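Help wanted!
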Amino acid sequence: MQKPKIAIYDFTDCEGCQVKLIELKEKLLVLEKRVDIVNWRLGQENNKPGPFDISIIEGTPITQHEIDLLKKLRKESKILIGLGSCATLGGIPGIINKSQRKKWYKKIYGDNYKPRGIDALPLSAYVKVDFLIHGCPVDKNELIRIMEDLLAGKEPKYRGYSVCFECKQANNPCRLLDNPLTGETGKPCLGPIIQGGCGAICISGGSPCYGCFGLREGAEVKNLLKVLNKITDKKTIDRYFSMFLNKVEK
Amino acid sequence: MNNEFIAKIEGHGNLTIDWKKNQVKLNIHEGERLFEGLLVNRTAEEMHWITPRICGICPIAHNLASLTALESALGIEVNSTTVLLRDLMQCGQMIQSHSLHLFFLSLPDYLGIDRGTELAQKNPEAFKSALALKGISDEIAKIIAGRSVHPTRTTIGGFHKIPTKSVLEKLLKKLKKTEQDAKNALILVSKIDFPELKVELQLAALDGSKIIAVSSNNIKGRKESPIGDYKEVIEEEVRDYSTAKFGKYRGEEMLVGSLARLAVYGDYDKKYKIDFENPFYNNLAQAIEILTYHQKAQKIIEKLLNNEIDKKIAKPSKNPSLRGIGTTEAPRGGLYHEIHLNKDNIITYANIITPTVQNLTSIEKSAKSLLEQTKNRSKKELERLLVMLVRAYDPCITCSVH
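Answered by r_m:
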């Protein structure tokens, strides 16, 4: 049987999700035995054009060149996968809205600069995406789980539970609640409405959950907002929701 | 060469070559993310969380530069445990980035392979060392910073969470076990016959609160500038073929990163003959640094184990300046984050100069010199050499267009 032809592309982003791919180390070798990576700019020089069985795309298509390439890749790929929050949600670059870009081009680059970037949007703003591997960065185990499903010809599934669930499994005290042990008062957290898969790694490290895995199916956003409104002000809530969820429908 | 992006470098760039004039333009196509804009109106506590996302190869460097900028703005002095843990993070970052660059992006050029994983067949021992180094450095990042890419445990004034001494002891054991891998990597790279090239550049590195520069043809003559003058020392220029700015050291082409650090600090075994006028030697400098930072990491852990661990997070002073500059030596060179806050700790101004911005101008100068100095080669061979030269610099275009 012919091995599936895989292409790995990166648009505008930090490339940290591809670093996570390289971090698979020995498992990357195993993966390489099962597939034919025919195009991977960051990894190799000898790159072939499509068609591809699976295209994995990291980053936000922010320039016209990237938008055109994305549309071409969609036509050339049986399965198109978004890798990491920039591809799946617009990511950190998506904090900036299109209308603000002009002002910042002028401030950062000066009056005579011809900008290339249009707007930091997820891949799904332009093409149909078959599966989203969320995360900023993506989680190694999720990467393996999803690749295994794809290579077995199965349709990968999203986690049916929230970060909240994994956070409890990780034995973290709930950030939303006052902590009598430390005397700390409740802090905002998007864990209850965000799809699991990260293992609550940020909260376990002491950082907030800003929702890089995207909203889970059936997320009770309104109910969480009720809780958040009791803990903090509207500006803070907006800041949490604009970190990763600025360019997705809520 | 105009249409395709150069493979095996971080980010999107390509070269335009004027064969008659021997001139090379480095076109940068990465989309602008406008980090200096998107930081404004966010809180101080969000900055060191956002800026690592500038670069997935050196997120720890951005995290540390932001933290030191914020702490300077808030008048915070961190305790010695925090200093040591952050130094350890930096060691991990250097080994992570250098081993990734050497084994997966740069060395394939010299070893006659394409993808880094082909080394598993070609030289299994070297590949084992590559994985061991990537593994141990990822582990340092995970244990201290909370995750291999994009830290979770760091905060203004210290750490949310600190590893226990028994975790540090285990990490030290693993480091001792992998020191031979760092030595193997250095042996492998020290045998490489680098292409010939001679360029006059300003090699710059941070030393405490100073920016030190030396000329590549006279590394004894040190020029010092205070970090506070970074914007005058490193002049940035906008060019129409690039979404990244091009930096110069007081008007002259500069090189930062491993090669510059060795020239400025001089802390390496002199049995390695380094040609500071030849940027290809940056690859050897990186291999030397892998071992240096590997050994430094062990010393830091020993210090941590021999002292009381202080978990306290340092608090802001009563009348902070609300303006701060934070710097660190990232794997690719000096990184500068400047921040202004209002009294509610909201960011009102941010400025970031990345190492690759400082290297871009000199990549073009070195490329021109390479074309002028290399005789009897076909255009195809020269193109190949130019791409190798770009890779030897280990540019992070992602960082440069932040």
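OP: Thanks! One thing I noticed: Residues 64-76 of chain A form the longest helix (13 residues).
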